[in-house]
Design brief:
20% of the residues lie in helices and 27% in strands. It is an alpha+beta fold.
Length: 143
């Protein structure tokens, strides 16, 4: 699927994402907020970058479940606990340098928040991906 990514003239330059992403007609996959929980449900450490790595792994698995790749992502929202800019910037760098990195060339938002759902959780990722019509899995098929 070919996505159109645009930075309209007159808007500020970005550190890699695009202000607008257009997807052709098809299906969209809305991933639940991807948390830094390992397959057993345990928090993947207390370090922000370790948690980002787990979120990347989880997101790649969720995308693969609907035959999507990072290039199919049309929107991301990154939530990082804290009010200082450095942890936000560190999370952004880690995400964009990961195998999930191409997902962050689309419309993207980075937010500092007071807290997230799990005790000790420092990061969460919200993802929307555009899918070819045949790629979506139905709930009846185990999705």
């Amino acid at each position: 699927m070919t996505l159109i990514r645009i930075n309209p003239e007159g808007l500020h330059p970005t550190p890699g994402y695009h202000h607008v992403t257009v997807a052709p007609a098809g299906q969209l996959a809305f991933l639940a907020g991807q948390c830094p929980l390992d397959p057993t449900g345990a928090l993947a450490g207390t370090d922000l970058l370790m948690q980002v790595d787990q979120v990347v792994d989880n997101t790649l698995l969720a995308l693969a479940a609907v035959s999507a790749r990072p290039h199919d992502v049309v929107r991301t929202v990154i939530y990082v606990v804290g009010t200082d800019r450095e942890p936000l910037a560190a999370a952004w760098r880690r995400f964009t340098e990961s195998t999930l990195g191409p997902a962050f060339t689309s419309a993207s938002t980075l937010l500092g928040v007071a807290q997230l759902g799990y005790p000790g959780q420092l990061v969460e990722l919200d993802v929307t991906a555009a899918l070819p019509l045949a790629a979506g899995r139905s709930e009846a098929a185990g999705g």
